[in-house]
């Protein structure tokens, strides 16, 4: 594939992420082609079908999340988090796309979610290895919980705003969500919430799990 083909493919894919996020997956290939400045035939040429295009969009969305999470984890001190918050509006198309995907449901939505969870386990375990996050007795379960909490909260927040406001400015919505949730999330993750380990100890004993998490 030539450099021009790669550039056209990326332009169509990125336009599709924007259009799908704004209008949902019922939108036709023609609208995506118009947004990308190409012919509908060229969309099919590069992606084979609308389903093929959506799969490519999923892959790109996962890549963006993976890269940005890794940057935040690897940055020294709080730099990564502060930079991510400062630039959070740039993720509006990704957030809108994910919302539409989970609203639509089906195999592609389930696949996107499972890939997000798999990636979350990898970058949280990387953070454990570098001493940024405490180890877990069940890293896969922790990653699933974190993704479900974050995705669920995001979807509920945005859907409630849609019901109240109609057409949304996603850049503003994700900024508002970040402003409302960053402090309580950091406090909870850093300091915890329960004053004693009684409930955890009882759960671990009932499940016959180790009382201490594994070493890093």
TrEMBL record:
Signal peptide: none annotated. Keywords: DNA-binding. GO terms for molecular function: DNA-binding transcription factor activity; transcription cis-regulatory region binding. It comes from the Bacteria. The keyword GTP-binding does not apply. It holds the Pfam family TetR_N. Residues 28-47 bind DNA. InterPro entries: Homeodomain-like_sf, HTH-type_TetR-like_transc_reg, HTH_TetR, TetR_C_25. Residues 6-65 form the HTH tetR-type domain. This is TetR family transcriptional regulator.
């Amino acid at each position: 594939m030539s450099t021009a083909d790669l550039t056209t493919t990326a332009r169509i894919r990125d336009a599709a992420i924007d259009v799908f996020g704004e209008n949902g997956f019922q939108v036709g290939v023609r609208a995506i082609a118009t947004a990308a400045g190409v012919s509908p035939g060229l969309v099919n040429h590069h992606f084979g079908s609308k389903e093929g295009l959506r799969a490519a969009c999923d892959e790109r969305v996962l890549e963006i999340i993976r890269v940005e999470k890794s940057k935040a984890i690897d940055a020294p001190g709080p730099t990564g988090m502060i930079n991510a918050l400062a630039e959070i509006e740039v993720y509006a198309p990704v957030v809108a796309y994910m919302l539409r995907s989970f609203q639509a449901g089906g195999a592609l939505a389930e696949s996107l979610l499972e890939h997000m969870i798999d990636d979350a386990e990898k970058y949280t375990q990387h953070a454990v290895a570098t001493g940024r996050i405490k180890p877990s007795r069940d890293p896969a379960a922790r990653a699933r919980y974190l993704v479900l909490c974050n995705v669920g909260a995001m979807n509920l927040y945005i859907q409630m705003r849609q019901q109240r406001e109609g057409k949304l400015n996603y850049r503003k919505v994700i900024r508002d969500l970040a402003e409302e949730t960053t402090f309580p999330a950091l406090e909870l993750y850093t300091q915890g919430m329960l004053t004693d380990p009684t409930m955890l100890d009882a759960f671990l004993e009932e499940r016959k799990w180790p009382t201490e998490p594994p070493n890093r």
